[in-house]
Structures are given as C-alpha cells and as structure tokens.
Design a protein that fits this description.
The protein has 24 helices and 29 strands. By secondary structure, it is of the alpha/beta class. The protein starts with a helix and ends with a strand.
C-alpha cells in the first residue's frame, strides 16, 4: 500500500466513526442541503458532539453555532463542508489550521462544471495534502454509517436506511437516493453507505480496502461512472475477496460509448472500453450486474443465506407451470436438478397427496397449506444430494400465504443450506413477501431472477478461496526489442514495418517464420531460394494496412518464375489502389501448411493499461467477433480460461472426431504476448492475425504493431 492509501484509511476511520463533527455552512432554511444535513445528523441520534459553523447565525436547532471552524474550542474529528464551491477552499484551509484530518465535501461546482471547477478542485487536493487531510467528494450526497456505536447520517438523503450487512459505494449521488428508496421497500439494510462524487481524494480503491476490514460489512456494492486506475482496482478487488471472502458487486455505466469502432487494428476495433471493463471485472473476481435490481438480487443471495456448496437444487412449487419455468431457468444458468435419495422419495410419496408430483421439481399442488410446504422443503434440505431449495408459491383461494412464509423462515433456521423464494404476484402476496424479507429469506418476483442469483452465489463460493498468482516472466530479449521500437518512434513511424514487427515478436519468443525484405525482383527471388519454397510475398507500406484487400499478398508461390510474376503484380496493385503510398518493398516469407487461424492482440487501454485479446482469427474475427480479453499481467489460469471461453473452443479441442490442436502452443503465445504488453509501453496496439495452429506447433503469419 502507498503512504497516501494508508493515510486515507486512517482518516476514513474518523469519517465513519467521528467523536465530534462540524457542519460548516449550516443554516436555518428547511429544504436546503446545509440545513437538511445538520437535521439528518441530529435525527439519526449521532453518538458524538455536533458543532454547526455559520457566519450569519448564532444558533441552529437550539445548538450554539460558531462563526468559523477555528473558533471551536475542542478538537474536531470530521468536517462536513456545505459552503458554495467558490469559498470551499478557504473553509478547508481553516480545517487544516484547526487540525481536522477528515472531511466530507458535499458542495457541487467543481470539475463537473468545467475548467474553472477543475481548478477549484485541484486547490482542495493541494490543501488536503499540505495538512495531511483526507476528504470524500466534492459533489456528493454524503456518508451514512448505521453502526449503533455511531449512528451517522451525514447526507441529505430522505431517510436513514436500516442497519444491515451491505456496504454501498456510489459515484452518483442521485443514484444513491433511488437505491435507498428501493432498499427501504425491501427491508434491505446497509452497514456503510457512501456517495464519493468526484473522488478528488478518497476514491473507490480506498473505500474497498476500508470495507474489507469493516466487521459490519459482508458484501460490497459499487456504482462507477469512470475508472481512472484499472490495475489498482483489480488489485484492490483481489485483496478484498482473497483477504476477507467478501463479494464485490459492481454496476458500471457507459456500456455503449460512441466511437469505439474507429481503430486501425482488429484488436483496437474489438476491444471497446466496455468489453475491457467486463474482462477486467471478471479477472478481478468482481460480479458485474446489469442494473440495480440484479445487483440487489445477487447481494441478498450472497448475504442472507449460506453460500451453496454445490449446484444441485430442489424446486418446491404449488403450480406445475412455474415449476417447469424454474427448471428451464436453472438449467440455463448452469445449475442441476438434484436427484433425491430413495429415502427422500419414499417420504414425499407417503406424505404428499397422490396427485402431487414427488419428483424434482416437487409439485405440492394448488391446495397446499403450510404443513405441506414444511414437509417438502425440510425433506429436500435433509437430503445430502440437495445443495439448496427454491420455493415457489402462486396465490390461490385456499393458500395461507403469510403462514407459509413463516413456515419457510422457520425451516430455514434449522439448516445450513440456502433457501430462496419466489412468491409470484404482487398485491396478494405482499404481506408474505414482507415476512420473508424481514427474516432474511432472499425473495424474487420472477423465478428466472432467483435461479440467476443462486448461480451467482454458487460460482462465487467456488472461486472465492482460489488464490491466483501472476505468470512468471519468460526468457526474452526485451532490450533489443526496445531498441527497434524506439528507433521507429524517433523516425516518426506510427506503424512498425512488418519485418521489424516480426523481429520484435521473435525476440519475445513467439513462433515467427523466416523472412526478408526485397526491393527488387532479383532480390525477391534470391530470398525465396534461400528461405525455401513455397513462399508468400506481401507489400510493405505504412499507408496500406489491409494488404489482402488490394491484392498486396500472394500465397503459395513454388518457383522463381511465380515469385517474379507476383512481385510485379503486387507493386502494380499497390500503385493502383494507393498511388500516394510510400512503398518500402516486398516481404518474402515461408508459406506454412494450412491450419486453424486464431488471432492474438493487445491494446493499451486508458483506464486498465495493456489488454490482451484472443479469439478465432482470419475472416472469422470480423464476422463472428468471437474473442475474449484479459488485462496484463495475466494470472496463471488466464491463458487456459481465455482459450476455453471463446464459443468456438470445440473447434480447437477437436470437434466431431477431429484431432485437437496445439493448445499448449497457444497458451505460451498468450503468455509471451502479455509479457511484451507489460514491458513495451511504446506498443499501442498489436495484431497477430492469423496465428496458424496445427496439431503440433503454431506460427505467426501476419503481424501489425501500432506505435
């Protein structure tokens, strides 16, 4: 951890657990942010001393005010600034002089409004660093801590949430208010609730590390609009998950950023910001959610009930149709229907009506009351072949909804296996749902959501304790590769000549083919004779990126005469289609046997740094876009996972009796490319397309490096 991170963690304790705080800029005008924040602090029964600071008032809410924070006689742990942005820096300066080391800056009007606001924000950061202070914000809703030892509501939210196991972090204050309202209706409680706004100082990394060690927090939810330090986020997430076992669920906006398709390489066009974010979250172990509902569906599954030890579920329903729908959803999510033991099957047949279905899914039929649900659910949970139970209820005239809900809660308390419920409907089942939610039974309006949440909880349980180490560096000649790249940059080249690109890959141990640059027909023939037939000829020009499209590539040449003819045809095609292009010559290289084409690539992302791509190559990459990404440096398991994740993996593994291809060779190429990505920052984008893979061995047949 950096010194700044350690300092922020120490000061965060004063933000969440202050013994005294000052509201700087408080007023008496109800319905304004300065008034409502002070009012919320007082209504929450804050367990500390409150000092309103107001240049104009002598008292607010029967509490004596101070003109300036430096006028307060006693020490102050936390400052909450609600002054206009134009004077916030003066208030923060006084906080520093007072010795206050923690602040929440609620005020807006900073970088979100343009250059002038950005300058004001930088001024705050400079003041904080000078005094060893840490602050949340600016431009935020505030901070809530439901721990009864503190009871802090330093926000202008409408209500203090219930206490619970969820830590919620959000870059958006407006989203926070919606989340609080959503959670209140479902009796979802929070441990810590933080709107961190512009994150000028304390950011999501600091807060993740704090919540890792917070005993009140069992799961962390985070909403992000921008990621400024992707590698740090990945490290923090891994440290949280591996260090505490706490899951992290993320909602990231910006899935459809415009302009992502404008790029000079395949990797550049395919590796949009959202695709990279998706890959990075997966690599870090972060569970990405599509919307607020999915985030909380997963959160309650991960905190309310024990984590599933396996994927075998039992479905208990009082209606056949929903049982079938749930079965379909469960299978779609990768779950399995449990096979009941003979003892369980016999008990169900004996105890349930003859019209009931005692196989999984168990249909206790429409007239089922609480006793029938109790028997079916408890019987399933006792079965060693069952890892969790999904309870479905449809409201019918004889259904005692509330009693069944209480029975489900009572059975749940007797077993260390998860129970999820879906009481389908709205008005009729509302009171039963309320009973379930108050007793920490995860409830879902739709069975599909219930199955999805169970699958998320199961996968997290499987991966949580897995310790992953980065791939060790391979033996390469990075210094010589750096020299080639630096010379090209110094010469003003935006794209590395292919013969230089091939040399860089060769220095990193990738399986390149012998080749040479020819600037005349006799030279091309001489190179072909030396390399050995058959050969390939390719035009070399910075301005011609897609050589095949203009006839700039001739394959499978077997004789000197064919080379002579191809050389002339390539130059003619190049001058016809790109008359202004600067032609460096023709690259002559060995022709390899046909094989499976795959693509390897890298792109340097603004937020996450070097990103590695793998997928089906050649024409297929343009048509199917069957590719996966990882942020470098890679973990040991990443290359294997990347290969298996593409939809066309069966082709590589040997579909329909075909001999499998050299997966080991592909994995090594991915590792070497990832090392190049981390060691050569001058490479902005890189394509190896295609990498020809055989049953034994693979070969780079085309390479492009953008600088």
């Amino acid at each position: 951890m950096t010194d700044r991170l350690l300092q922020n963690l120490e000061n965060l304790q004063k933000i969440f657990y202050p013994q005294s705080l000052a509201v700087i800029g408080a007023n008496k005008v109800k319905g304004t942010v300065p008034h409502d924040i002070l009012d919320n602090i007082l209504k929450a029964d804050f367990q500390g001393v409150v000092y309103p600071v107001s240049p104009r008032e002598t008292f607010i809410s029967s509490i004596k005010t101070y003109k300036y924070v430096v006028d307060i006689e006693d020490p102050v742990d936390l400052a909450i600034l609600v002054f206009p942005s134009s004077v916030c820096h003066m208030a923060l300066e006084q906080c520093g002089e007072k010795g206050i080391q923690a602040a929440i800056i609620i005020s807006a009007g900073f970088k979100e409004v343009g250059e002038n606001g950005l300058a004001r924000e930088r001024q705050l950061v400079e003041i904080a660093k000078r005094y060893g202070m840490s602050f949340i914000g600016p431009n935020c809703l505030g901070v809530i801590n439901t721990d009864p030892r503190c009871n802090l509501d330093a926000s202008f939210a409408r209500q203090m949430p219930e206490a619970g196991p969820i830590g919620f972090l959000s870059q958006s204050g407006a989203l926070c208010t919606a989340v609080l309202d959503y959670a209140q209706a479902k009796h979802i409680g929070f441990s810590k609730f933080v709107s961190f706004g512009n994150k000028a100082d304390i950011n999501e990394i600091d807060l993740l590390y704090y919540l890792r060690d917070d005993p009140q927090t069992e799961v962390i939810l985070i909403y992000l609009e921008e990621i400024t330090d992707g590698p740090a986020l990945i490290r923090a997430a891994r440290d949280v998950i591996e260090g505490s076992g706490k899951p992290i669920l993320a909602l990231k906006s910006g899935r459809t950023a415009e302009g992502a398709s404008a790029a000079a390489s395949h990797t550049g066009s395919l590796a949009g910001s959202d695709e990279i974010c998706e890959a990075a979250f997966k690599q870090a172990g972060i569970i990405r959610c599509a919307d607020i509902e999915e985030m909380f569906n997963n959160a309650i599954a991960l905190t309310y009930q024990p984590l599933p030890q396996n994927d075998r579920i039992a479905i208990i329903t009082n209606a056949g149709g929903p049982g079938v729908l749930t079965t379909d959803s469960a299978i779609h999510e990768g779950l399995r229907l449990a096979q009941f033991s003979p003892e369980t099957s016999a008990l169900l047949r004996k105890s349930l009506p003859k019209t009931a279905n005692t196989k999984n899914p168990v249909d206790v039929i429409g007239d089922a009351r609480a006793d029938r649900y109790n028997l079916a659910v408890s019987s399933a949970l006792k079965d060693e072949g069952v890892d969790g139970v999904l309870v479905i209820l449809t409201p019918q005239s004889m259904t005692d909804i509330d009693t069944i809900a209480r029975e489900v809660c009572q059975v749940s308390s007797q077993f260390d296996k998860p129970i999820y419920a879906s009481f389908m409907g709205e008005a009729d089942v509302a009171s039963g749902i309320d009973i379930l939610q108050r007793n920490r039974i995860p409830h879902y309006i739709l069975p599909e959501s219930m199955c999805r949440a169970f699958a998320v909880a199961y996968r997290f349980a499987q991966s949580r304790d897995r310790r992953r180490a980065p791939i060790a560096n391979l033996q390469v000649d990075s210094k010589k590769a750096t020299v080639i790249l630096e010379k090209a940059v110094a010469a003003g080249h935006k794209i590395l000549h292919e013969h230089e690109a091939v040399r860089v890959l060769e220095l990193y141990g990738l399986p390149t083919l012998p080749g040479a640059l020819a600037t005349s027909t006799p030279e091309a023939v001489a190179h072909a004779d030396r390399i050995g037939y058959p050969v390939v000829l390719k035009i070399m020009s910075d301005q011609i990126l897609h050589k095949y499209d203009i006839g700039g590539v001739h394959l499978n040449l077997h004789t000197d005469r064919e080379v002579e003819s191809a050389y002339g045809d390539i130059l003619t095609a190049a001058r016809t289609h790109a008359p202004e292009a600067d032609i460096h010559g023709v690259w002559v290289t060995r022709m390899v046997e046909p094989g499976q084409e795959v693509i390897l690539g890298l792109k340097r992302d603004r937020a996450f740094g070097p990103v590695v791509l793998f997928g089906l190559g050649g024409l297929y990459v343009e048509v199917f876009k069957d590719v996966v990404f990882r942020v470098a440096p890679l973990f040991e398991s990443d290359p294997e996972e990347m290969i298996r994740e593409i939809r066309s993996y069966p082709i590589l593994a040997g579909a329909r009796g075909r001999e499998s291809l050299d997966i080991v060779c592909i994995k090594e190429c991915i590792c070497r490319l990832a090392q190049l990505a981390t060691e050569q920052p001058l490479v902005q984008e890189l394509d190896i397309n295609p990498l020809i893979v055989h049953n034994q061995g693979c070969f780079v047949t085309d390479a492009k490096i953008l600088l």
